[in-house]
């Protein structure tokens, strides 16, 4: 299969948190997610329409940041092809067996140090009893709790060397670049689309000198109205709102940026009105002048958005 | 003051339920309301932006139906004026002192037997601690639970003699008739507006031969999108949906009709995009041909909507 | 009648524009309003559910700003009572006969010089032919054009002396103060409610030393989603967006501020989910610390919002 | 490439109409689409975010119905592979050169007689001047006209033999079956997904004895609120509403069914909150009992929905 289409979707993200209990409470009570399993220092959670065992793993740690993230591939063959390609680049860590939600996975590092896994075998979530939805085509019951997030949407990482990230992503892993920021011939950010969603992963330039930093993780709701309701819920529950709700010019995402108690930036968004169905979609390029206009409706990007990332823990580097 | 403006708004409704605990659970967990007080066989509840002690009283009873309802008047003077006028018509029951949420009230019967109270003194709800909203102009915190109903909206009763009801309402109590159904010179229903909302009370014809029947009680949400979310929450929780979501031609109300476990019909609606600001608004009259078109977008009215009302308990008659 | 309730609603606003044709195009093509009449240098416009002949009069002038605005009273008697009270304060200008949309009006000045009229007789708009709505309770057909604004909502003026404005409004004209900003015992802004809407008029402090300045005029749409769509329409048509969409902490208004081609600030909002039904509502007071928090979800108020008003033309002063 | 992923998306549909001018007016003024080209008896139209030259071709004809429809493939190689496979089945018609919006196409018949084309080369739409969107990632400017449909969403055909259709679709053309109705082991309908959208094509059983019939063509809007606004626009413009707005249990589509003046059924929907990202998604099967429950919130399916299809013109059979 063409390398473009070998990844199926962003599967899950492991976030590290110095306040595990409070983080769990945030994702379950405020975002409306459910716990699939608690295992040692880690909790596995999913949104009501995530079809897998979990889309979020929360692990207790002295710092916030990202532990690892995972792509599900389109097939077992795709998984093996990609593992081989990564190995050839010398970025592979190796195969691991998982018992919690998914099967054999190939672990590796992205050029900026972020740890990632590829896998195909998935122990899909089977809703039972009170968790079963009245609609057979929904993974589990609409919770009617907090922000009612529907599914994992995308991940945004920071990286020092965008060119290296880009070459690795599209030359070795797959996907296509739906949008990019280029200032004076230097790429500053790229958006990776692997299916009809316009992106599952974004990487933006890190000016801090650090490696493997996390910018934000996004959960999707069904409508812009629900993003507005989420803002009220954040306000009413003392959750810090960094910026939004507003509409990004890039990708047209209607966004709301929050911080979970562990210190990781979380976005609530409604990005799916826009889809990329065009199989040879031409990358949209944003230049400096265009970026200076701010967000879609003119909101200036808050400074912290450009600078604040969550460092990768030393022992993972 | 002009009689038109002496009533301020529909204040609360007492519903009778043979399943008090299940009814309480329905209104708190599904609708997202809170309990202000439990007193003997009655529970007092309010929606998050209801400013009074309660807008709903649930009382255990062997049948479902309405116990009483209440109007708050615009002033103490209005209360006394209206009490006098009712007394003169011979429909008065008398003054009562309340300790639960409101002060001295004048009790009386509408011509079809429904028991009603007028009062002015209100022990307004003071949100404290975790119930306090981050927005000073909201009565209490947005719950983020179930349907998140905002406030009581309106009440719909059934009556054998619409003319008698109409004459009593507008000749003795106050308000103005925003809309009416007239078939062959016979009024079949009237909508009573006492403020800028286009109605707080509706009365439609009862063909059953019974008296004092209840049709439905409505709670408002902020948007039509939230009515759609409410439909999903009803579906996911096994709540019977009688009809909707759809838009009434009459009053343009975007509606969803449910049944609470005690057997009373409850509407979730978003009716406030429409306001009547015109002080000499001319009543909108609907004839048979117009009603035959069904609801705004052509949905046929379900048969049960025309026939099913909740009887008034014998001992209250 | 109690002075509180003698005004029915904000009826219309006359805006001055140095670009009459472009302003007309803005309000008809972008906002979706209709022209009721053109008369010399003035155009009379209405939103699709405005029940009167016009809610906006656009008059050609070398500067932008407000010409006059008008309240409709609840009755002819209210009109006469208020005219007498104003006369006694020495702020009256006198009675005028209008042929364009409304009858005999009493003209006067607010303490900061703004010209205002009171009237009761209204030549209500009668939709005919293609302008007739399929819904009998809508003033005219939903346009399906541009932002589809529904009705005039409120007016915001600037005044040097908020205390004088407040005393005149509530002591002579009527209404009640739903919200106010007070810094160190000095009122900085007041919000005037005359019906169940939480405000029809706002007055905020003018630091410029000028008199009779205009801040903004607001048209309402039915939902927050339509405010978001309006933002896209503004963006697509080169209309300057000053700030928004976002939610005001004050009054909870979901706002979008634009400039029409003549230079007047126009707001598109969805303020009616909140109503004040409480007849003895206690004014919400905002202090400096609370205002420093910015808008409801934390957006900082743009500087121009505090400083930019449209001056009153010299010859009207 | 795996056959599953060789089709990229539903590209365009040709509808026949006995009232070409009125049909053009409907799609441009009511739906808000634009004309790309008029060529003889055909008009080519697109929604504002359709990236190709057209998604709808309207052709004058004495009857309503479907002329042909087209899939765009993921690559030139996919096109050639599929053409070969069809040829082997004996259902091919042959290659054609198009000058109007797309390049070399392979024409063939589905088993029930519907004419279809596959192509890869596309003359993508380049918005210029006033049609250019302020957002670089939108194909053209948001129109602010009528229903503002965003893009073509899906097509529903009728067929006598669902098994034959299914075998041809998944055995020869590609895609996967996201949902199906099966009564007593007999398939009654299938939904074809070729990308992350849960379907681009649906085929339901035809009981009429006719061949090649058309059921409906769907355009997507961004939100459920816009579907509700579309219902009002239909109502205000005398467009017949067959059923809706409501939510399908199947696929969760929030729907509104209309008829265009030529007699073809058109759906306005907001189906994209649901995506299928799972690469080995298991087909959802609906049985008779489940279908008897009606739509998601209990609305009974209107009878005409089961019976009314638009016949294929004789000369095309």
For the structure shown, list the relevant keywords.
homotetramer; 317 residues; alpha/beta; 2,3-Dihydroxybiphenyl 1,2-Dioxygenase, domain 1; 9-stranded mixed beta sheet; 8-stranded mixed beta sheet; 6 helices; globular
What would your notes on this structure say?
- The structure is a homotetramer of 317-residue chains.
- The first copy, chain A, is α/β, with parallel strands linked by helices.
- Chain A has one domain (3-316): Roll (2,3-Dihydroxybiphenyl 1,2-Dioxygenase, domain 1), CATH 3.10.180.10.
- Chain A has six helices and 17 strands.
- The first copy, chain A, has helices spanning 20-30, 76-89, 162-173, 224-236, 288-291, 303-307, and strands at 7-17, 34-39, 42-46, 56-60, 65-73, 92-96, 105-109, 115-119, 151-159, 176-183, 186-193, 201-205, 214-220, 241-247, 254-259, 265-269, 284-286.
- In chain A, the strands form two sheets. A nine-stranded mixed sheet of chain A has the order 14-15-16-13-9-12-11-10-17. Chain A has an eight-stranded mixed sheet with strand order 2-3-4-1-5-8-7-6, covered by helices on one side.
- Chain A is globular, with a radius of gyration of 18 Å.
- The mean pLDDT of chain A is 95.
- The interface between B and D is medium-sized, with 19 and 20 residues.
């Amino acid at each position: 299969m063409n390398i473009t289409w070998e990844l199926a979707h962003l599967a899950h993200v492991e976030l590290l948190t110095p306040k595990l209990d409070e983080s769990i409470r945030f994702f379950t009570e405020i975002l409306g997610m459910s716990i699939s399993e608690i295992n040692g220092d880690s909790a596995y959670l999913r949104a009501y329409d995530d079809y897998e065992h979990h889309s979020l793993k929360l692990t207790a740690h002295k710092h916030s940041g990202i532990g690892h993230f995972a792509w599900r591939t389109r097939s077992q063959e795709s998984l093996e092809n990609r593992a081989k390609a990564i190995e050839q680049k010398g970025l592979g860590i190796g195969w691991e067996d998982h018992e919690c939600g998914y099967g054999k996975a190939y672990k590796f590092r992205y050029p900026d140090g972020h740890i990632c896994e590829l896998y195909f075998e998935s122990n899909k979530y089977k809703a039972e009893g009170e968790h079963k939805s009245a609609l057979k085509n929904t993974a589990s019951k609409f919770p009617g709790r907090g922000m009612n997030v529907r599914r994992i949407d995308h991940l945004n990482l920071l990286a020092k060397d965008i060119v290296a990230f880009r070459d690795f992503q599209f030359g070795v892993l797959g996907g296509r670049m739906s949008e990019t920021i280029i200032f004076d011939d230097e790429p500053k950010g790229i958006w990776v689309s692997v299916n009809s969603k316009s992106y599952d992963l974004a990487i933006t330039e890190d000016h801090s000198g650090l490696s493997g930093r996390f910018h934000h993780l996004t959960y999707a709701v069904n409508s812009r109205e629900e993003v507005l309701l989420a803002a009220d819920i954040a306000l009413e529950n003392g959750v810090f709102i960094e910026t939004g709700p507003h509409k990004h010019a890039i990708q047209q995402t209607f966004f709301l940026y929050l911080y979970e108690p562990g210190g990781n930036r979380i976005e609530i968004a409604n990005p799916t009105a826009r889809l990329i169905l065009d199989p040879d979609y031409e990358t949209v390029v944003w230049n400096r002048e265009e970026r200076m206009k701010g967000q879609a409706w003119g909101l200036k990007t808050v400074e912290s958005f450009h600078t604040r990332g969550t460092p990768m823990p030393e022992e993972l580097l």
